[in-house]
Structures are given as C-alpha cells and as structure tokens.
C-alpha cells in the first residue's frame, strides 16, 4: 500500500508538469496572393486648346460703337484711330476701367471688330475741316447764358433721379455718358434744354422736364466746379 503522503506528492508532481507544458502555437495564416485589378485606369482628359476669340457680330458692334463710344467721342476720332489689335485691346481696357459698359467676354470681340473695320494698314478718311468760327460757336456761352437762376437743391434731386446713372453721381462720367463738370453746354442754356428734352444718341429724351427743371439742373451742375 502506498502511504497517503506519497500519493499527495505524486499528484502535486503531475500538476507541476502540466503547468510547464507550453500550449501549441496556432499555425499562421498564409496571406492570399493579391490579384491585380483588371479595371482600366481612368483616362486623363486631353488638354483643350483655349477658344479663339472672333470679332463681334457686325450689327451688335455698330450699335455698341454708337451707344458706348459716340456719346463721348466724335466719329472722326474713332475712324481715324488706326491703332491695330494691341492698340484697340488697350483702348477697350482703358475705357472699361473708366466705366464703359463693355463686359469682359465682349472686350476682345469688340476690339477685333475695330481692328477689322478700321484696319491699321488703311488710311482713315480725311479729317473734317472746322472753321475758327464753328469752333468758337461750339464752346462759346450763349447770350445771357450766365444769368441763369435755379434751385441747386432741386437740381440735385432731378440729377440724381434722371442723370446720375449715366453721368455719374458727381457728374464725372461713368463711360455711359460724358463728363458734365465745366462742360461748355452748361453756359448754353438753349442747347442744354434741347439735348435734355430731345435726347441724342444713347441719351434718352426727358421731355417731361420744364424750363424751371432745366435751370435747376444747370445751377446744380455749375456749382460742382
């Protein structure tokens, strides 16, 4: 018979051996081989050439010249400006900076129309001869023109309502209408009244204005000097 103490010793020995056994390491998974994608790579779009600008439509350009240029410049000045493509583009840019209502997308087509219509290689028309008498009459005050009396405050209100959108809030011009400060017409009341009431070129007619309204406008504009 095995003594009881020997039996306990044997059991403790077996337990210690069991603790020393190392658990088997699980087998590592073999990574699956990567399969190359068969989907085609997205195509890189080919660079598109910049669109080539063409001259503005003839009818549109004629209207634009009258409405945007002739209100401030004489026909002779425009027709005699044989300045080529670079010159016309620079001129259009300058006028846009001064407020001319030419959109950015129409600037180059408008310039190209001038290039084709007034070619640099072709001489312009002969200048119109103006006599000294005609030149003086264009700027000379009318008889009694300086004696106009008007209400400057009423004139300012009329100007803001009817004139400022084209001639500018301070009458310095915006490209749509000419500068009015110190304009000779301010001392030519009859001519001023005719231009205002009947209109000219792009300028609409304001035939509802009465004589007092005209005098008020003149008084206001003279006071801006």
What class would the helix/strand composition place it in? mainly alpha
Terminal CA distance: 138 Å
Poorly predicted residue ranges: none
Average pLDDT metric: 81
Looking at the structure, what is the overall shape? elongated
**Strand count:** 0
CATH topology of the domain at 145-223: Cytochrome Bc1 Complex, Chain D, domain 2
Q: How large, in whole angstroms, is the Cα Rg?
A: 44 Å
CATH architecture of the domain at 145-223: Orthogonal Bundle
Can you tell me the CATH superfamily of the domain at 145-223? Cytochrome c-like domain
| The CATH class of the domain at 145-223 | Mainly Alpha
Helix content: 40-55%
Major pleated sheet: none
Our count of helices gives 10
Strand content: under 5%
Instruction: Give, in order, the helices and strands.
Output: HHHHHHHHHH
Topology:
Blueprint (H helix, E strand, L loop, with lengths): L3 H17 L37 H12 L5 H6 L3 H14 L6 H14 L14 H8 L12 H11 L1 H4 L21 H10 L12 H13 L2
Helix pairs in contact: 4-5, 7-10, 9-10
């Amino acid at each position: 018979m095995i003594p009881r103490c020997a039996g306990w010793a044997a059991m403790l020995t077996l337990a210690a051996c069991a603790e020393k056994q190392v658990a088997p390491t699980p087998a590592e998974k073999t990574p699956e081989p990567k399969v190359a994608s068969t989907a085609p790579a997205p195509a890189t779009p080919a660079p598109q050439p910049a669109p080539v600008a063409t001259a503005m439509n003839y009818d549109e350009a004629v209207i634009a010249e009258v409405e945007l240029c002739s209100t401030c410049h004489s026909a002779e000045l425009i027709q005699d400006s044989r300045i080529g493509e670079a010159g016309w583009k620079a001129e259009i840019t300058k006028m846009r900076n001064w407020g001319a209502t030419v959109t950015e997308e129409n600037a180059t087509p408008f310039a190209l129309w001038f290039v084709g219509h007034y070619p640099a290689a072709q001489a312009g028309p002969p200048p119109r001869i103006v006599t000294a008498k005609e030149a003086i009459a264009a700027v000379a005050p009318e008889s009694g023109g300086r004696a106009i009396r008007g209400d400057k405050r009423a004139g300012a209100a009329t100007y803001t309502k009817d004139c400022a959108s084209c001639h500018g809030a301070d009458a310095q011009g915006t490209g749509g209408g000419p500068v009015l400060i110190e304009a000779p017409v301010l001392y030519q009341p009859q001519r001023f009244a005719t231009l205002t009431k009947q209109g000219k070129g792009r300028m609409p007619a304001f035939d509802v204005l009465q004589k007092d309204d005209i005098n008020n406008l003149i008084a206001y504009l003279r006071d801006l000097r």
